[in-house]
Amino acid sequence: MSETTIGDTGEFDLIARITEVLPRTAQVVIGPGDDTALVATQSGSVLATIDVLVEGVHFRRDWSSATDVGRKAAAASLADIAAMGGVATALLVGFAAPWDLPVEWALECTAGLTAEATKVGACIVGGDVVASSVITVSVTALGDLQGRSPVLRSGAHAGDVLAVAGRLGWSAAGLAVLAGGSCSPAELIDAHRVPDPPYAAGPMAADAGATAMIDVSDGLIADARHLAEASGVDVVIDSADWIIPESMSTAASDIGADPRDWMLTGGEDHALLATFPADAVLPAEFRIIGSVMASDEPGVIVDGVRRYGPGGHVHFTLEL
Amino acid sequence: MSETTIGDTGEFDLIARITEVLPRTAQVVIGPGDDTALVATQSGSVLATIDVLVEGVHFRRDWSSATDVGRKAAAASLADIAAMGGVATALLVGFAAPWDLPVEWALECTAGLTAEATKVGACIVGGDVVASSVITVSVTALGDLQGRSPVLRSGAHAGDVLAVAGRLGWSAAGLAVLAGGSCSPAELIDAHRVPDPPYAAGPMAADAGATAMIDVSDGLIADARHLAEASGVDVVIDSADWIIPESMSTAASDIGADPRDWMLTGGEDHALLATFPADAVLPAEFRIIGSVMASDEPGVIVDGVRRYGPGGHVHFTLEL
Asked: Which of A50, A54, A268, A313 should be substituted to probe chain B, the one whose Cβ sees the most B Cβ atoms within 10 Å?
């Protein structure tokens, strides 16, 4: 069976096939098919972010389905909107791929992007399809604060509590399992293929008075450092009483790894790391994992030890 | 002399070096450095578009400087905003590149993006830097209608005049000259390297009552067809009395090409093609090149001959 490729179909027919099945939400004034989209902005301003996923760097086609890649690409941008306290409204997708890629792959990737966007009430409003030797999915997410003030990285104060919503280290553990040639535990591999960011927790944190927030895309220590440096404080993490998920303990002992390393440095789970005043009532999704201290040398302290270096997630090693 | 590469610098240092020199306009509430940007939207809605440029497909590093590539990448998206009748406010840039790329190239590309954005009063508000085997620049432009109604592709009526602002065929002519191994006429090669879209003509066309408009990125016939099909009309182009720029006549006779073909099918100049009511007073940038007719078979007629097929621009041939 010879599959139809996007080179056979051509750019315009592929775009037509993609756009004819796209859902459209109430915020979309003009969707795909014109030179730009037009999206309503409830708050008089728009949140906007771009993330790029590259085959061989952020995903492998033998490890992830096209749907997985679409969902993962959307999640990276959608989580950034949540981390500001916003709700995503729209995605724009730049899709670069070899012309011998099956059309089906492009359509399934789009379905994945749409499925993830639908979780937060957003949809794809525009895009571009171009030729490239390597599949590259660029996703811009737009979002609305719905009247909230944005929660920046720079607002943490000494005395705040540090809390996290969502998974830590699951994607890194799944990647380690896949790299070791295993296909179990499945829930970790699934977590590597498709993250499950706690989107709703972002606006809830803003409503609960979060002083600072960041999407954990590079790893807990690395992103805590971004927050610490932007706020001019020390972020103190206490991992002593963390409950290690059983699947992660199992995988770690199989591989000879320390699951706590995955949780401290693994990226791509898109947890939300936030600081709150000590007397704030935290949304149920958040668990306290530390505190904020004044510092002359802003950084990250884990279990009493100051951590230097990036301490973050490294994607697959590129051979260039 | 060994140049510093972006692999030497690392993602975060490169981002820091890029962002420290970025200008910032009044519309930017939150710029680079947080999980998303926040951009003011004057009209209660935001125009948004994405375009992707790939090395070897849309540019070659031996033919274009990094600044040229940045300007060209920005122009593709900024022209889309103009074609809706809007004014661009902000760019988001996804930059994928081999880690052995000199840092200087990335900085100059960013300077090119900024230079082009500055022409319309916009600036870079966010981005992403990732590893890839091929340089890929994804640019999202945001824009504001400033109270205007958007000018769609679908609004052309029988009896309207067809008019164009900006250059036709210059980029294609420059590409043909470069591909032939020549470096003259310089103005055509420059036009291929850096387009000069008539940004201001977009909002002016909207104010003058344009019924439909499109950015000529794929070629006059190809984009006229998009407009014709969206509006359900025939777009009639009369090229008989076109004045062929002297540089284009010279280049064409050197190569043995027909300059009119470049003007009818060459893309990437980002001219604006618009339709206006017959009694409209056209902005000075626009010249009338045809008319709109009712049709049961919407399409494009050039000098009395109905044109089928894409009739558009083909980028460099990719070897995949």
From this structure: A50
Q: Do A29 and B51 touch (CB under 8 A)?
A: no
Specify the residue for token string 């972020």: A235
Strand ranges, E, within A21-152: 28-30, 37-40, 45-54, 87-97, 123-131, 136-144
Share of chain A above pLDDT 90, in %: 87
Element (H, E) at B131: strand B123-131
- Per the structure, the complete domain to which residue A218 belongs is given by 153-307
Q: Which helix (H) or strand (E) holds B32?
A: none
Q: Is B141 on the interface with A (CB under 8 A)?
A: yes
User: Closest approach of chain A CAs to the CA of B75, in angstroms?
Assistant: 13
- For chain B, how long is the longest CA-to-CA vector? 65
pTM score, whole prediction: 0.95
Which residues contact residue A100 at a Cβ distance below 8 angstroms, ignoring those fewer than 6 apart? A5, A7, B320
Residues A163 and A298 grouped into a single domain: yes
- Identify the H or E element spanning B101: none
Question: How does residue A24 score in pLDDT terms, banded at 50, 70 and 90?
Answer: very high
Rounded to the nearest integer, the mean pLDDT of chain B is 94
**CATH number of the structural domain spanning residue B60:** 3.30.1330.10
A280 to chain B, closest Cα gap in Å: 23
